[in-house]
Amino acid sequence: MDVVVTGIGLISALGHLEQTWTGLVEGRSGIRLCQPFSHLKPHPLALIEAYPTDFLSLTERVLHDALHDANLEPPFPECGVVIGSSRGNQAQWEKLTTNPENLCGWLNTLPNAAAIAVAQHIQTQAMVFAPMAACATGLWAIVRAAELVRRGEVERAIAGAVEAPITPLTLIGFERMGALARTGAYPFGRDREGLVLGEGGAIFVLESADVAKQRGAQVYGQVLGFGLTADGYHVSAPEPGCGSAIAAVQQCLTRSGLAPQDIDYIHAHGTATQLNDQNEAHLIQKLFSPQICVSSTKGSTGHTLGASGALGAAFCLMALRHQVLPPNVGLKQTDFNLAFVRNAQTAQVRNVLCLSFGFGGQNAAIAFQAI
C-alpha cells in the first residue's frame, strides 16, 4: 500500500513551515548568541523565542499546524501516533532537581509525554509509540508510522519529533565533550567548530494513497523506503569506515526500488562536528556520484537533536513541492569533494534522500518521491 504525506507542521528558530522554508531558501539563519541561563556563559543557539520554549506547548503548536495543513479536524479514533524526542521533558526534570517540592504534574514529564499529548488531542484509541533513537529519532518515527499505514494496521498516522533541548545540563554536557560551536554552525565547512543547539519540531500526517485521494488531500510526496541500522560500536563516536551507516542507505535504496543514480538530492545530517561531517561525506562519496546535490540545513535551524531528522524530512518534501534545493547555510570553504548546494537552486527533483545519525550508532535513511 502506498503511503503519502498530506500535512506538515513545523516550527524552528526561523518560524513556522513557510517562514522557515523561505528563510532557508534565502540563506538566513536563526542562530544567535544567547545567554538563557545567567550562571552559564553565552552560546550561539537557535531559540524559537527569547527564552527556551516549553516542550509540550511546542508539541501542541506543531501538531495544530500539521492538522491544519492537512485540512483535518479531530477526533480520529483509529489514527496511529508515533511521536519521538531525544530529550523530551528534560528541562522540567532539571527544574525538579532544584525544587523537588514542586512535583505537581510530574507524570506529564515522562518520556512518552509528547506522544500521549498528541493521542489525547486527536482522541485516538489506536496504537501510540514514543521512540527515542538519539538524533535519528525523527526519521525512526516517520518510518514506524509509514509501516503502520503500509501494512494496513491504520489508514492514517501522525508522526514526527519535537525537541526543546536548551537546558543547563545539555549545554554543559556537550561543551565538556568539546562538541559545541563557539560562533555558529558551519556544516561540512573547513572552519566548522561543532554543533549549535536548536529548538524545533516537525509533525506529519501520513495516509494511504487511496484515503488521500478519496478526500482530495494535497500530497507532498510518497514515502518510498527506509534503512535503519546500529553501529554497536561506541556511545558517541561513529563506527570507523561507516559500515553500518552505509548499510542503512543501501537498505533504503533497495526497499525504495532505486539505484544511487536515481537520487536527485540528499539532505545530509551534517552536524558541523569533525567526526560526523567527515564520516558522512565518506559515506556519500562511496555510494553516490560526485555530482549529486547535497546540503545540511543545520546552519540555518541549529541542531534540533531528536527532531533534526523530522525537520530534514520536511525540507525534503518542500524541495519536492517547490522543485527547489535548499542551501548548505554557513558553508564557505570545504575539504570534501561533494556537490554542496551553496545557494538555493531550482532543479528537477523526483527522488530525495534524508539521512540521520545519532549517538550510540543509530543510523537512519528515508527516501521520498514526488507524486
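(the above was protein one; protein two follows)
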Amino acid sequence: MRYKMTILFFFLSSNLWAQSLCRTDIMNKEALVPADRTEQFIGYNFANLWLVTDDNLVYGIIGDEHQRLLIKILTVVKDQKNPKEYLIKGKSWVKGNVCDFNGKILIKEIRVSKRTNFGVDDEFKDKGMKTQGLLTASYEFFEDKNQKYAGRFYGVLKTKWYVD
C-alpha cells in the first residue's frame, strides 16, 4: 500500500510533551540574524549532527491519530556535487513495523545566532565556541517498497548547531 505522509522533525530540541505534542522553538526564543548565511557555512559538514542525536530528541508524528514515528539515521554522506545535499540511509518505526529507507536532506537556510555570550555567565566563552545558529532543511525519505506499509516521508527539519 502506497501512501503519503507528512511529518515534522525537530532535531536537538528538549523532550517536552506537557502542553503540546512537540516543541517548535528549538532556539528557546534566542534571536537570529535575519540574513541567510548558507554560503558562509556550506563548506562545513553537518552530517554528524544527524548521526549522534539522541532518539528522545527527535520528534516524529504520523497520521490523523498522531502515532509516534521513530527515525534512526544510520548513514549520512554529503553530496560532493551539491554541497547543500546529504544522502541518507536509515530505518523507520511505527507501531512495531520497521522499514529501511533512503533519501536526502537539502539545506534551505543557515542562520546565525545574535548571541554574544555562551552559556550562563559566559561559562563556555573560553571553551572554543565561536558561533552557533539554526539550520533549516527539507527532507524526503523513501521506504523500501518491498517492505510492509512502505511509504514516503517528507517535510522540514531544524537543527541547532555550533562551531568550536
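Reviewer note on protein two: Strands lie at 4-6, 9-10, 61-62, 67-78, 85-94, 97-112, 131-143, 152-163.
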